[in-house]
Amino acid sequence: MNDEKSFEGSDATLSPLERRRLRFRRIPIRVVLPNLVTLLALSMGLTAIRYAVEGKFETAVLAVMAAAVLDGLDGRLARALKGTSRFGAELDSLADFVDFGVAPALLLYFWSLHEIKNFGWFAALAFAIACALRLARFNVMSEDPARPAWHSDFFVGMPSPAGAVTVLLPLYLHLSVLELPASRAFAPFYILYVLMIAFLMASRIPHFSGKRVGRVPRDLIIPLLFGGGVLLLLLAIYPMEILIALSLAYLALIPFGLRRYNALARQEEAKVAPPA
Fold first, then answer.
1. 5 has a pLDDT exceeding 80
2. Which residues pair with 154 in a beta bridge?
3. pLDDT winner (highest mean) among 125-129, 135-139, 185-189, 203-207
4. Mean pLDDT, rounded, of the chain
5. How much is the pTM?
């Protein structure tokens, strides 16, 4: 390790052959593993597009959900292994755009939005563009050292995985026991809903983050494991119905997140305001 650092420090004195050798120095496995998970998530997003083209919408939905789960794992794995890198961050953003911007938009378009051709395609484009803008803003804001610590408890705008999960709510309703029709008569309502989710992603409305959830108290481990097991079983048996409930619950939390954010912002202003 010390030899590598000494080579890097004297890079200006190295010959061209030695510089080429340094480019191929070994990369720790702890850096590679999170990127492999990200690539697996990207594969799930692309697979969702394939199944959407083939009209297998339930399988496509499950592929998007798998991408969302893997997206939640890669960052935590990188932090746990201390394998974060600039390359990994850029790869994650590109994968998120495909998984949570392009795939859900195409899925909805092939399912129902195509019934109103140009306007349906406009809604799909608006959602994908909102996802791209939201990811770009996140990358810029994460590098701001002047952000207060409590800002880490919130996302600015709906995060892209949550946007992908919630925007598919009409499709869950269609695939569930409710069997909401995918007809031309309902397409305008679906389009309005997609545009609403796109607005929430591109807006500056704060959403609870959940990234700073710490260790679980020992006396709550068993209840949490039981609840998690029950949720997984229900998700396996009634996937669309559970996704409907999760989507509605997340949308219902938005006003509470906004209220909490405004309360913390007022406390911050009161600390820095000069005494009267």
1. no
2. 208
3. 125-129
4. 86
5. 0.85
Amino acid at 271: K
Tokens of 237: 């048996």
Picking from 48, 69, 70, the residue whose alpha carbon sits closest to that of residue 57 is 48
- Tell me how far apart the alpha carbons of residues 65 and 59 are, in angstroms, rounded to a whole number: 10
Q: What is the CATH number of domain 26-212+229-269?
A: 1.20.120.1760
Residue of 195 and 213 predicted with greater confidence: 195
176/217: higher pLDDT: 176
Which one, of 246, 110, 252, 98, lies nearest residue 187 by Cα? 110
State both tokens at 181.
């029709």
Q: For the segment 68-105, what is each residue's pLDDT rounded down to a tens digit? A: 999 988 888 888 877 788 888 889 999 999 999 999 99
DSSP letter for each residue of the chain: -HHHHHHHHTGGGS-HHHHHHHHT----HHHHHHHHHHHHHHHHHHHHHHHHHTT-HHHHHHHHHHHHHHHHHHHHHHHHHT---HHHHHHHHHHHHIIIIIHHHHHHHHHTGGGSHHHHHHHHHHHHHHHHHHHHHHHHHTT-TTS-GGGGGEEES--HHHHHHHHTHHHHHHHSTT----STTTHHHHHHHHHHHHHHHHS--EEE--TT--PPPGGGHHHHHHHHHHHHHHHHHSHHHHHHHHHHHHHHHHHHHHHHHHHHHHHHHHHHSPP-
